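Q: Please design a sequence for this.
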């Protein structure tokens, strides 16, 4: 069966590089005589019928733009079959034969539900959290990692000057990838992530005090937002150590900005691959980076995969924190 019309949407938290993926989907489609409809506001737009035909020109000048020009949403309604049926009707009206979903694991679950209703889907991993187990890389992660790292570097400068502890909260409600990798890249004394239990004395106070005893006068603690109350941890550090401790919550700044070269490249390759798969008549696939190659696996299998352990990186971070 040769596909003639597809839809594409971005869903969940936005990620730098989503636009580059969208551009690749539309232009690869054109190369195969496939018409692409952009669906605004993720699954919400799918339910509401917010479809717009995209041309090579409608995706020009977006490669370097952060966010997503077709906007995104987290749709509660799409969990309900009644609304998925309505979305299916909308797809029929526009002649959509397959859907490309660009987003994180919530978006993958939406695609899995929709394919059970009979829609062909391909999913592209895009989340700054980088927490989709089936792929070694998610679009947006590199840009977010570098945005947070440049903030950490700046905060370390001022912590050094004032001989303070800088506590920095990075994004990751359920995932510690930004925290652990920026903690290592930024030279943190301690890193706290939601996936691993921590002991306040052992994992935060001890490295600070050991550093002091070795002559260190400034300290940096990187915490993922999912750990809990970062401001309280900050206060507790100051009370326990007697060292002035300042808290910075980086927040949404990590989600915006022009995508890095890596994100633009990954997005272009993954967007291209998604449409190639559909053009070959293969459906219900998740695009993945594996051993530095862009490959695909079944969406169901992708959602069953487990995350790799953080133990190795955490151990290395502790050793290098001296
Ligand atoms: O995009 C992923 C993420 O940034 C998480 O780390 C964060 O917890 C969440 O999105 C918050 O996004 P929102 O407030 O838009 O739901």
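A: Design:
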């Amino acid at each position: 069966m040769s596909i003639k019309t597809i839809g594409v949407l971005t869903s969940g938290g936005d990620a730098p590089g989503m636009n580059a993926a969208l551009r690749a989907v539309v232009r690869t489609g054109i190369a195969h005589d496939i018409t692409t409809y952009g669906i605004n506001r993720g699954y919400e737009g799918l339910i509401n019928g917010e479809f717009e035909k995209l041309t090579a020109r409608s995706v020009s000048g977006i490669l370097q733009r952060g966010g997503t020009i077709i906007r995104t949403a987290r749709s509660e309604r799409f969990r309900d079959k009644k609304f998925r049926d309505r979305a299916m009707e909308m797809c029929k009206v526009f002649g959509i034969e397959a859907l490309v979903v660009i987003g994180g694991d919530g978006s993958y679950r939406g695609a899995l539900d929709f394919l059970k209703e009979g829609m062909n889907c391909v999913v592209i991993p895009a989340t700054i959290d980088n927490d989709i187990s089936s792929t070694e890389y998610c679009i947006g992660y590199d840009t977010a990692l570098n945005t947070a790292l440049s903030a950490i570097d700046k905060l370390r400068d001022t912590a050094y000057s004032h001989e303070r502890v800088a506590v920095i909260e990075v994004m990751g409600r359920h995932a510690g990838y930004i925290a652990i990798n920026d903690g290592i890249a930024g030279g943190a004394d301690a890193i706290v992530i939601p996936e691993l239990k921590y002991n306040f004395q052992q994992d935060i106070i001890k490295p600070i005090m050991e550093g002091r005893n070795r002559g260190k006068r400034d300290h940096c603690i990187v915490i993922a937002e999912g750990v809990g109350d970062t401001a309280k941890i900050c206060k507790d550090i100051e009370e326990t150590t007697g060292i002035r401790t300042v808290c910075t919550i980086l927040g949404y700044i990590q989600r915006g900005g022009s995508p890095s070269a890596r994100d633009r490249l990954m997005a272009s390759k993954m967007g291209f691959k998604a449409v190639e798969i559909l053009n070959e008549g293969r459906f219900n696939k998740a695009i993945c980076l594996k051993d530095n190659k862009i490959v695909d696996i079944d969406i169901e299998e992708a959602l069953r995969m487990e995350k790799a352990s953080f133990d190795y990186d955490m151990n290395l971070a502790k050793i290098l924190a001296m």
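Q: Thanks. Anything notable?
A: The chain is about 45% helix and 20% strand. The pocket of 6-O-phosphono-beta-D-fructofuranose is lined by residues 13, 127-129, 171-173, 225, 255 (CB under 6 Å).
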